[in-house]
Amino acid sequence: MKGYYVPRKAGWDTHGLPVELEVEKKLGLDGKDQIEDYGLEPFIHECKESVWKYKGMWEQFSGQVGFWADMDDPYVTYHDDFIESEWWALKQIYDKGLLYKGFKIVPYCPRCGTPLSSHEVAQGYKQVKERSAIARFKVVGEDNKYILAWTTTPWTLPSNVALCVNPEEEYSEIKTKDGYTYIMAKALAEKVLGGEDAPTAPYEIIKTCKGTDLCGIEYEPLFSCAAEVAAKQHKKAHFVVADNYVTMEDGTGVVHIAPAFGEDDARVGRENDLPLVQLVDDKGNMTEETPFAGKFVKDADPEIIKDLDKRGLLFSAPKFEHDYPFCWRCDTPLIYYARESWFIKVTEVKDQMIENNKKINWIPQNIGTGRFGEWLNNIQDWAVSRNRYWGTPLNIWECPDCGERLSVGSREELFKLTGLEEAKTVELHRPFIDKFEIKCEKCGSMMKRVPEVIDCWFDSGAMPFAQHHYPFENKELFEQQYPAAFISEAVDQTRGWFYSLHAESTLLFGKPAYENVIVLGLVLDEDGNKMSKSKGNSVDPFEALDRFGADAIRWYFYINSAPWLPNRFHDKAVVECQRKFMGTLWNTYAFFVLYANIDEFDATKYSLEPEKLPVMDKWILSKLNSCVKSTDGFLNDYKITEAAKCLQDFVDDMSNWYVRRTRERFWASGMEQDKINAYMTLYTCLVTICKAAAPMIPFMTEEIYRNLVLSIAPDEPRSIHLLDYPVCDESLIDEELEKNMKEVLDIVVLGRAARNAVNIKNRQPIAKMYVKAEDTVSDFYTDIIADELNVKSVEFSDDVRGYTTYTFKPQLRTVGPKYGKQLQGIKDYLAGVDGNEAMDTLNAGGELKFDVAGTEVVLGKDDLLIEMTSKEGFVEQGDNKITVVLDTNLTPELIEEGYVRELISKIQTMRKEAGFEVMDLITVYEKDNETLAKYLSDNRDFVLKEVMATDIVTDSADGYTKEWDINGEHVTLGVKKN
Question: Which of 520, 729, 739 is nearest to 641 (CA)?
């Protein structure tokens, strides 16, 4: 609608472990061994079939919510063209020396048998309560002397090879009540050993030293299996080392080191030439060498604690609560595990990624500088390989004899390297691609492809170029569309899609992948809890769409809160948002259609002539163009909620002020100019506001457009979405007019509040209204106020003190400390003052002075609670700028007029209930109330005109009848169509 061509290519992310898990479930398989027994080729075929299981549902869903995309020509991440583009990208990265194989501690899922990237780990944290262990490590050659070390992962203790202290901190030998001597951090001694009930208290510090002084002390291994593995590696183990990463925040200030199970442990191991003892297999089970063979690591924790306790090597096993990572796919606890893996060296381009991030307009900005920016500041190399099956094969061939490697960037290149014609058409998946071997130029042996596939997040980050099979074709098309002007996803994608796009774009093209990004908050339930099927608080989106319609749900998310904030979704909230905006817009449209059909009004036969318009028409057109200008500006700045509120405010003004104030113009007979003006003004407002709202509520605006426009102008574009977005006509904006009308509206709101305060209905006329405001308005506007509030006259005045006064009470917070003894006297004095005179004194001098029981009291405004109140027979309402006062004294004439208006209202209600058409003429009947019969007779002509009646018959009831209680007067009324 803004004149740009916006291609919307649908896409299907098809690779990855979730697909494999679903296929495993379908086939009754469990784990990698059973998959390989089943056969890799049929398993891959099942994966390919599985990904289309929900295709129809997603296509229906996308269409139903109005997210229109090209479903006939989507990109599919498992298609060979897509994978070939990824191969090109991986080769570019490899040739730059940024794709390497390393032996590294990786977050590892033992159930899935594959490492996870750091941004995948970030998606699966849960808060868990577990037992930790403070173990006693016996110092070699010393009786009853132990080093205390704490670990949150007892299952790593069988693989322990060293203990680590902080070189700069103080450590103590401490003799305790239980007869042991412990070595630990001095700063944590009281926390670990102290306390009235502790068996170690009281304790005595024998000597203190720096951490470096402990280095080299040898201790007996907790488990002999670790010592045996260390001996086979011919490396020294089980002694104290030092490193600055040890903190004094928790534990004992001594950290147990198992280099196979932690990044810091691995680094300390390398720096001190420690053996790598890994007594956990790739399924997460303790190995045969340990006393806990076959147990899953988390199940082994309590067994290890029991074993240590039995052997007198457990000091304590405190419970603790912490965040622990679980596999986001299968919900298995992750372990940090030493594995060979392929990494993309993103740390090499870290500075460039940070600079590129500064070029992106993040909405909100704090995600870019905070969550995403901090992530970039601390990025680790991307563990990109997966030891699985259904994914893009890693395009590295390796020689088994000499270790030579090469990266293949295309099927054509594979053909040239192998000489096999089928390389040009081979499916780029396992096991098909694994059949191709390449002769090693270095030693002449046959190179084989490495077995890994790649992280499916790499597929996601490759989408911008791989969807076009770049660089093999569509080069110009890709370059024309890159980088994306705008993307949007939920906040949990900060370390997922947002990151993979950014990393690959920086590595390959040296620039950001997107210019603007709206980060969406998560959808919560009514109570603010995360939705979950297991909790029973999730909402079925298809049911919600069927119940409310797409427009209502879309509008709820636009208007409810800023997109990046968490959003509480519940039925009542959707219905209320739907009522306030869509319901109001539809009712206004229905009002127009009702009378346009009666008058057979055709907007193509007339034109809007601004110079001929009355003030109300000029005002609403000014508001319309101001709204278009603001909405357009907000959307250009990605301020979605502000744009929605602007549209909602205009529709409210159009319906509840403009139409209500001008509806009688539509009832006039014939087609006089004033009626044409009203029709053309409302028609213009409806069509224009629908254009402005079309991107947000596409279905309702389309229906209104087709009925209002295409029914009389079939040659116009067949959809509202094919129109240009409306442009503000500055010549129609009158800021002074809008300002004056806003003041009128503010006065009316306060006037209604004043009526409600004394329970006087709006149909009851009031004699006088006084207004104190910064600006006065012309008679035109005062007439509107009088008509709207049903008052006989409106008077603007700088002083409404004749009808209002002020009451004063002491502010106890400030007066109490100063005049505690005189407090009751102060209250009594303030209750008796002339409110207006006291306010004058306060405004003039800034304080009130008076005497209480011989004590001079001085009170400033901060010492007083001041409230404006009404005098007898008047009611007042005000805000910071405006005060209105209504004269509530009612004469008999006013009371009679109030009853007449009530009678007219009841008769109009009965017309609708009886099913009469708008233009039907009727006869009115009254029975059983002489007072009301007299009021009808005395005001006969006025009533006949208002209710479109030809006669009023009293003391009789006919036609559609109904009993009413009108302000305590009981009566039976009847309406009958002539």
Answer: 520
Residue 801 has pLDDT above 90, yes or no: no
Side chain identity at residue 853, one-letter code: A
Residues 6+ apart with CB under 8 A from 423: 411, 414, 415, 436
- What is the radius of gyration, based on Cα positions, of the chain? 40
Instruction: Give the whole-angstrom CA distance, residue 366 versus residue 344.
Output: 27
Cα distance between residue 174 and residue 837, in whole Å: 79
Q: DSSP 3-state helix, strand, coil percentages of the chain (rounded to 5)?
A: 45, 20, 35
CA dist., res. 39 & res. 318, Å (int): 47
pTM for this predicted structure: 0.74
Vertex 554 angle, CA 549 and 558, to 5°: 150
Please, what is the end-to-end C-alpha distance for the chain in angstroms? 52
User: What is the pLDDT at residue 339?
Assistant: 80
The predicted model gives 520-532 an average pLDDT of 84
Query: Using the 8-state DSSP alphabet, how is residue 377 labeled?
Result: H
**Residue 205: DSSP 8-state:** E
C-alpha closest to that of 931 among 959, 963, 954: 954
List residues bridging with 772 in a β-sheet: 883
Residues near 663 by beta carbon (within 8 Å), at least 6 away in sequence: 591
Q: How far apart are CA 297 and CA 907, in angstroms?
A: 81
Assign 3-class secondary structure to 237-302: CCEEEECCCCCCCCCCCEEEECHHHCHHHHHHHHHCCCCCCCCECCCCEECCCCCCCCCEHHHHHH
Tokens of 733: 């904006």
366 residue type, one letter: N
For residues 301 and 281, give the distance between their C-alpha atoms in angstroms, rounded to a whole number.
16
Cis ω for the linkage preceding 431 (within 30 of 0): yes
pLDDT for residue 363:
93
Distances (CA, A) of 576 to 243, 555, 583, 588, 653: 60, 11, 9, 17, 18
DSSP string, 785-830: HHHHHTEEEEEE-S--TTTEEEEEEE-HHHHHHHHSTTHHHHHHHH
List beta partners, residue 860: 847
